[in-house]
Amino acid sequence: MEHGWYERLENYFPEHELKSPAQMEELFEEHPAYLREQTDEYLIIYANFEEFIFIDYLLVNPKTRGGGIGTRVINAFKQRGKTLLAEVEPATHANPDTEKRVHFYLKNGFRKAQNIDYTRETADGTSYTMDIYYWSPSSTSERDILEQMQVVCDQIHNFHAKQHYGRLPADPDDVLTWKP
């Protein structure tokens, strides 16, 4: 089931949230933390760091969505005993999928980081905001979450980014802001 993973992402996620297929292939080949698991039921792409796991993309097959598969995947990741991080598009009534994604993470015990603003730009300069959701097996501060997101931006989003996009799409000093 190696084929078709990028097409599955393209059919579900907004274009501005997708990395280029070339950048992702390089991440899989060259970054030891960047991994992909895929079955007919789900696709998850994540970075498994020593202290935390960043869920870059999680997609459940539309034919089986709502059957608990996503929760089983998340629960398996929780068993690893690390903080889990996810970037989630803010919920809007105009896009029911956004509301479903937020509900999914909340239902699975994630919390929205209240003190972190995360705003990125598309290639044409249009700003968009993502929310940071996290789950932790122990008490963790949002300052810790901010530091982990800085690692994600540096090591995952910006991996060979100048070569692929001619810019850094997620310079942590520009895209992440602490709001007291």
From TrEMBL:
Keywords: Acyltransferase, Transferase. Residues 1-135 form the N-acetyltransferase domain. It holds the Pfam family Acetyltransf_7. Its EC number is 2.3.1.-. PROSITE patterns: GNAT. GO terms for molecular function: acyltransferase activity. The keyword Thylakoid does not apply. It comes from the Bacteria. This is GNAT family N-acetyltransferase. It comes from Alicyclobacillus fastidiosus.
